[in-house]
Specification:
CATH class of the largest domain: Mainly Alpha
Number of strands: 5
Strand content: 5-15%
CATH topology of the largest domain: Helix Hairpins
Radius of gyration: 58 Å
Shape: rod-shaped
Distance between the termini: 27 Å
Length: about 350
Amino acid sequence: MRRSRNSNEYNFWPSFVDALSTLLVVVLFFLLLFVLAHFFMGKNLDTKNTEIDYLRYQLQNLSFELSEERQTMQMIEEKLKNKTQEAEDLTRRSNSLTQELNGLKDEQIKALATIALLEQDIKALNLRKQELEKETASKTKDLDQERQISQEAKAQIAVLNAQAEKLTQELSKLTTLLDQAEEADKKQKAQIADLGKKLNKALAAKASELAAYRSEFFGTLRKVLKDRKDFKIVGDRFVFQSELLFKSGSASLEEEGKKQLKILAKTLKELQHKIPAKIPWVLRVDGHTDNLPIRNESYSSNWELSADRAIAVVQYLIDQGVPARYLVAAGFGQYQPIDSRNTEAARRKNRRIEFKLTER
């Protein structure tokens, strides 16, 4: 009884364990996603810092070059002053000094152009520096948020681990109880198997007892009915052809059939006193028809005809003094043929009344 009760209850643990496993997989997925995002953001931040350092280095070089150009300009200006003074003092060298002055002016123009370009580059680098600083600040803010999320995720994981440990303990207790139940079930199955063996032995003993009386019954009928062609013994039953007992399409017993049934009833009453009362025996009367459909005023199917014929035989045996508690009537129609061929000879074999001495 305990086994059947357990089988009707819904076993929710596999579903619960599946749900817990799915939850753990989701948490691990988000942790992996966070670690990857943190890694790539850190790598991107390192790249930006490298670019800033490189731009700072270029800026320093450009500042150094600008300083040198300014020093050069100052030297040129000093030379120009000296040359002007020398031009005032040395008129003879004015032409050469004028040419030299023109050359120095050209160099000055080029230096000024270079300075202008360097100043533009410095402005561009400053703008780029500001942009990188903004991006760095944004990335730093995002990184702080990710770190905060990581701390919250760790707290949730700790709670889930505690819950998982508790569920594991409960599952261990349930497993122990299940093992105990299975052990008790094994013992019950062993007891049931032992009882089944004893029951089979008892049934076999009863069947062997009834088999002895069945053999005596068949032997007596064989002697009384002699070798009639319309009567024969097949296995554990004896068979009357329907034509001996009934007309075609009818369930009314014929006079010749009643004579044979009287012999059967007499033999059955004699056997009744020989079979011990402890053996629960009955004589089963089975009605069978052929496979030709029947449609008349009395019957709409072969099944009804076969059942009425079996009932008519049982009723006649009761009228002859056979106790009703030892009789059973059954109709099989055309569904249990002994010859499945579609010939007249086969149909004649299938139209029959069978008697079987068996247990209730």
